[in-house]
Design goal:
With about 270 residues, this protein is of the alpha+beta class. The protein contains 9 helices and 14 strands. About 35% of the residues are buried.
């Protein structure tokens, strides 16, 4: 595994790092294709938003330069950027001044079955609920225990993803994906101001769909919205779009708008349009 810490090859982090002790930091998981990162601008925008909310100093030009050099060296695969608040003493209070730590790791591309994209997937009905915390909603912060608990609920390979809801039962997202519904030609996705992760491909899809003349709505989604949907799909910057064909007793066909959107983002994934 290729890894850098603060711009240099390394594989060890001090025990005093606040990312380890408190989850005090952010991360981005970035697809690299032929040395390029097609959604880099969106990843950096979300990172900047997270740093602003956590009062975490960010040297964007430095991080962008390191990412570009790291991606060229990796060539193909996945870069994970972790930005922690750096070292600190015992206690929650942040050290002053703060010296963030930059961690980059590179791995081969994930081997997702082509059938997920072509034929669709079945969602597992997760019982773990997402807590409301507006100050963290939308971010890729280092506290991922809700997702860890949700993913531990199933081992059956029939399920490629799980559906997660919030404390009031609203439909929010997958364990590692964003959720979209199609109803009467309108593209729907959940409002993530209370909880959930605002994915980079989700953001790109909203823009590209609107530019293509597709009606888009970001709003609260209920189980009834899910049951009444004409089409359902999940999206993620690593795998693209997976149509959903089943959740509990509900069944859907892979719909035309899902196929259209797969074509609209083919350039990001090096896939045939």
């Amino acid at each position: 595994m290729l890894s850098w810490i603060d711009g240099r090859p390394a594989q060890q982090v001090p025990l005093t790092d606040r990312g380890l002790a408190y989850g005090d930091g952010l991360f981005e998981t970035i697809a690299v294709r032929a040395g390029r990162m097609p959604l880099l601008a969106r990843h950096l925008a979300r990172l900047c938003e997270g740093c602003a909310r956590l009062a975490l100093p960010l040297e964007r030009p430095l991080i962008e330069d390191e990412l570009q050099r790291f991606a060229r060296e990796l060539g193909q695969g996945v870069v994970k950027l972790i930005l922690t608040r750096g070292d600190g003493l015992r206690g929650y209070g942040a050290p002053q001044p703060t010296h963030p730590r930059r961690i980059l790791t590179g791995n081969p591309p994930p081997a997702y079955p082509p059938a997920h994209r072509q034929q669709g997937i079945t969602l597992y009905p997760c019982q773990t609920r997402l807590a409301h915390q507006p100050r963290l909603a939308g971010l890729k912060h280092l506290n991922r225990l809700e997702q860890v608990l949700a993913r531990s609920e199933w081992q059956d390979s029939r399920y490629a993803e799980g559906l997660m809801r919030d404390m009031r039962g609203r439909v929010i997202e997958g364990v590692f994906s964003n959720l979209f519904l199609v109803r009467a030609g309108v593209l729907l996705t959940a409002d993530l101001r209370r909880c959930g992760v605002a994915g980079t491909l989700r953001a790109e899809l909203l823009v590209r769909a609107a530019a293509a003349g597709i009606a888009v709505q970001v709003r609260d989604l209920s189980l009834q919205d899910l049951r009444c949907a004409d089409e359902v799909f999940m999206c993620n910057s690593l795998y693209g779009i997976w149509p959903v064909i089943a959740w509990q007793a509900q069944r859907w066909e892979v719909g035309p708008l899902t196929r259209t959107l797969q074509t609209l983002i083919a350039d990001l994934l090096d896939e045939p349009a």
